[in-house]
Amino acid sequence: MTEQSSYRRLREYRDTFDKPAPLAWPELSHGQLLMVLRPALHHQRVAHRVRVQLDAQLSGTGLVAMTETDVEDVALGILRIPDIVVIDEDMADAEAEAIDPRRSHLVVEIVSRSNPENDYEGKLRDYPAMGIPHYLIIDPRDGTALHYWGLAVQNGVPAYDNRQRYTFGETVTVGDWKIETADLPLYTQSTTR
Asked: Are 34 and 26 in contact (CB under 8 A)?
């Protein structure tokens, strides 16, 4: 069985999957079906505040910020569901089942307390391979943000060539966009995911 046929079978299974209530839709990466818990309300509040800021800056540009939308590279066998993805507005109107990652401009992930390695390792491996030019990780656990950009190949593997670290209170700059982090809340002791 080829990688692509294996991916297609996983994709078909995912599309018919009846997920239990606490789980989000599965992602697919490197032949695996990745199950994660649905984001907590605190996580969603951070994502909402970031999206509101992006929406204000994207108005009239032909770009739009989408939330929890499939981003898929069939050739690589990867399907990810970023918290926020900025895409060409015409892609949002398309009949496609998923967003072509090479038509995206920015992906934002809010780190979940229960699964930080998904954003810091798995998605940091997959997003440059998928051709996503900017990847922003916002981490409410410690009040930091990391912006990765500059697609490159390092040791024969797609990667980002640049990285900028921010702390909450600083303004994150991604291309022409600015994200204020002063009002982004930290996770509390009771935040579990």
From this structure: yes
> Do residues 192 and 114 touch, judged by C-beta distance below 8 A?
yes
Dihedral in degrees, nearest 10, Cα atoms 71, 184, 116, 55: 0
Instruction: Identify the three-state secondary structure at position 31.
Output: coil
For residue 53, count other CB atoms closer than 10 A to its CB. Answer: 19
pLDDT tens digits for range 44-56: 999 999 999 999 9
Query: In angstroms, rounded to a whole number, what is the distance separating the alpha carbons of residues 32 and 172?
Result: 33
- d(C-alpha 172, C-alpha 20), whole Å: 36
DSSP 133: S
End-to-end CA distance of the chain: 36
Q: Put residue 30 in one of left, alpha, beta given phi > 0 → left and psi -120 to 50 → alpha.
A: left
Q: What dihedral do alpha carbons 156, 157, 161, 166 form, nearest 10°?
A: -150
143 vs 23, higher pLDDT: 143
Summarize pLDDT for 80-94 with one digit per residue, the tens.
Answer: 999 999 999 988 777
Do residues 138 and 46 make contact, with C-beta atoms less than 8 angstroms apart?
A: yes
Instruction: Quote the DSSP letter at residue 94.
Output: S
